Amino acid sequence: MELSWTSLLPSLLAIVFAIVTRKVLLALIGGIILANILLFWPAPENIAYGTLNSTWDTLIDPSNMLVWFFTLGIGALFGVLENGGTFKEFVLKLEKKQWIENKRRARLMTWILGVVVFIESNVTIMISGTTSRPIYDRLGIAREKLAYIVDSTCAAICILIPLNAWGAFNLTLITNQGVEQPLLVFIQSIAFNFYAIFAVLLALFVALFDWNIGPMKAFEKNAVPDQVSKNTWGDGPDDEASFGKGTAVVMTSLISLVVMVPIILLVTGNGVLVDGNGTLSVFVAIYVALGIAVAGTLMTQPAGLADIGKYLLKGAWNILPLAVILWLSIALGGLTRDLGTGEFLAAALDGSVALWMLLPLIFVLSAITGFSIGSSWGTFAIMLPLAIPLAMTLGLPAAPFIAAAISGGIFGDHASPISDTTIIASMASGVEHIDHVRTQLPYALLAGLAATVAYAITGMLI
């Protein structure tokens, strides 16, 4: 279809409706219906068929099926760990050892976990979010602060340390554009990935100094320590050996979750990490960790198979609403690509502009695209084939242009209420999704503004 400004409307409807009403599911459904109206107007039967077909095709797509199952697997995993008692023992152990005895250390622990677990963004979010949440509750730190820190370190770290599926995906896109020495150029682009760098550093500053801006101030002010679970250690196991066993289950399960991803990436990539299947690797890692959690809970806790079954179902059920949101957001993202949203936005670059403006324009355009479709990977796929030929045509180094497109995608995805990482960060932290979006946005905009200035300066120097 002919590119038009109307291609922006489905995403704008979903974003505005979600923010105003807090009804994310209805917002996404409305966006999907409007997208099909734009695609198939004025044939009502085609609109109805397109709406059903686009959502059904997204649901049964083989790669997405892995996403649904590992999403439910994540819920089941932490359902077993939390309800089975081992996770409580792990948190109590941390506090009893006085490793995390104050708010600053709790925030720093979350940031460090986000940086260390760089294998996959959603795994990073789930590990750092669910591990930190009970500690934040005990110390009286707002869960919205937790959601911000985990969300600000997940995708940003995965793209800055791209020994994962993120690196493989972008390297493939860069190679397909005919770039000489694509791996070297991709590595060079990391130094110019200003939004990711600023987002991680800003999160570290917030963790160190508890800097609250915008709506975060109110949430932090209203956060109080959980007096009920403030604990007199009598609630924990009396047997130190048993206490250690429960903690070992959690540690073994979480470590396996991190270690198995690169192992499966190597296996599926025939010994080359960046050629591996990222989604399959995460799927296998989660279910290996789930198996360890189930076996460990049975061996160390007073729980039977029936109890484990309840924990599995409870955990999966708790995550199901967000899995549905994830499903609908992926469907909407596919429809916005069909409408040519990214291509229409890219056309804004067509014309005579000063060379120093190209990098900030690519960054801003990529950010708008990422915000609109709620997908950093979708934005990379749209923007890299536009940014790289532009640099090559002008005889300019490709690395800064690659970085601007990727960095903008991370920014847009970070700020978007329909992004999967934003949704999962809300889930892992146990906060209302729109509250997370509102409290995170001022920090994201600040890092985004700094990145825009940095790209303008870079554009003057290249």
UniProtKB/TrEMBL annotation:
<feature type="transmembrane region" description="Helical">
    <location>
        <begin position="380"/>
        <end position="406"/>
    </location>
</feature>
<dbReference type="InterPro" id="IPR018461">
    <property type="entry name" value="Na/H_Antiport_NhaC-like_C"/>
</dbReference>
<feature type="domain" description="Na+/H+ antiporter NhaC-like C-terminal">
    <location>
        <begin position="185"/>
        <end position="460"/>
    </location>
</feature>
<dbReference type="Pfam" id="PF03553">
    <property type="entry name" value="Na_H_antiporter"/>
</dbReference>
<keyword id="KW-0472">Membrane</keyword>
<feature type="transmembrane region" description="Helical">
    <location>
        <begin position="248"/>
        <end position="268"/>
    </location>
</feature>
<feature type="transmembrane region" description="Helical">
    <location>
        <begin position="311"/>
        <end position="332"/>
    </location>
</feature>
<feature type="transmembrane region" description="Helical">
    <location>
        <begin position="183"/>
        <end position="209"/>
    </location>
</feature>
<feature type="transmembrane region" description="Helical">
    <location>
        <begin position="108"/>
        <end position="127"/>
    </location>
</feature>
<keyword id="KW-1133">Transmembrane helix</keyword>
<protein>
    <submittedName>
        <fullName>Na+/H+ antiporter</fullName>
    </submittedName>
</protein>
<dbReference type="GO" id="GO:0005886">
    <property type="term" value="C:plasma membrane"/>
</dbReference>
<feature type="transmembrane region" description="Helical">
    <location>
        <begin position="65"/>
        <end position="87"/>
    </location>
</feature>
<feature type="transmembrane region" description="Helical">
    <location>
        <begin position="12"/>
        <end position="41"/>
    </location>
</feature>
<keyword id="KW-1003">Cell membrane</keyword>
<feature type="transmembrane region" description="Helical">
    <location>
        <begin position="443"/>
        <end position="461"/>
    </location>
</feature>
<feature type="transmembrane region" description="Helical">
    <location>
        <begin position="344"/>
        <end position="368"/>
    </location>
</feature>
<keyword id="KW-0812">Transmembrane</keyword>
<feature type="transmembrane region" description="Helical">
    <location>
        <begin position="147"/>
        <end position="171"/>
    </location>
</feature>
<feature type="transmembrane region" description="Helical">
    <location>
        <begin position="280"/>
        <end position="299"/>
    </location>
</feature>
